[in-house]
Amino acid sequence: MSAPVKCPICKKPTNPTHKPFCSERCQQVDLGRWLKGNYVVPGRPEDDSEQLPDADDHA
Ligand SMILES: [Zn+2]
What we know:
This protein is an all-alpha fold. The chain has a domain at about 1-40: Erythroid Transcription Factor GATA-1, subunit A (Erythroid Transcription Factor GATA-1, Chain A), CATH 3.30.50. Helices cover about 25% and strands about 0% of the residues. It has one helix at about 25-40. The longest helix is centred in the middle third of the chain and has 15 residues, at about 25-40. The termini are far apart. Zinc ion binds next to loops.
């Protein structure tokens, strides 16, 4: 007997169509979490384009 696989998101029985999730919704939820974990951009450090170049370097 194989243990029933449950959806890792909502713990409902898995739907073979959306394995290992129970529905497309949970599949998207998991995908979203996965992407967030890989795209950790809490504030773009390259967004300080207002900073002028060093104009004090007139030699
Ligand atoms: Zn689910």
